UniProtKB/TrEMBL annotation:
InterPro entries: Immunoprotect_excell_Ig-like (IPR029050). Keywords: Signal. This is DUF4352 domain-containing protein. It comes from Actinomadura monticuli. The keyword Signal applies.
């Protein structure tokens, strides 16, 4: 049976139950993800090397996010992702460690920030290097490998467009 993931869209908060990871049965790790903005770039200048970096898979996608802990246990903002094309093509390890977003004047990366405690939130960016030959989705997973949600993405250069 194919797993249907909830879709995170710009401006619409999405609650995600991470697990029962607290010290007692009543503690639950749950976070609310809000996608504030999506930006895309083909290149960026690395501030450490002053070299122009090009997207290896097609283009860089920067996601500007708020992540709020709405549970009763410590949250966990450590995520990874893979891209799945409309034809089933999978591209793994697409995270670019946030440098592209920072280089383009967007907020700092979420990676490296402390996970928010109950009632707290963090803001920042996550960036990915995704293909541009077709529409697809960025499938985001938590530290334990559990798929959390997807972000549908149709690059401008895709020959087929995603419609909603």
């Amino acid at each position: 049976m194919k797993q249907v993931l909830p879709t995170l869209v710009v401006g619409k908060p999405l609650p995600v139950n991470l697990s029962n990871s607290g010290t007692d049965a009543s503690s639950t790790a749950s976070e609310q993800f809000t996608l504030k903005k999506i930006d895309r770039f083909k290149t960026y200048t690395d501030r450490f090397t002053d070299e122009t970096q090009r997207a290896q898979n097609g283009e860089f996608v920067c996601l500007v996010l708020d992540i709020k802990n709405v549970g009763t246990a410590e949250g966990d903002t450590c995520t990874s992702a893979h891209w799945v094309g409309a034809d089933g093509k999978v591209v793994c390890s697409i995270d670019t460690i946030g440098r592209v977003c920072e280089a383009k004047g967007l907020p700092d990366s979420i990676l490296g920030q402390d996970s928010p405690g109950p009632g707290q939130y963090i803001s920042g960016t996550i960036s990915y290097d995704v293909p541009t030959d077709q529409p697809g989705a960025i499938a985001v997973e938590g530290r334990n490998g559990m798929l959390l949600f997807r972000i549908d993405y149709a690059p401008e250069s895709a020959t087929v467009k995603v419609t909603q």
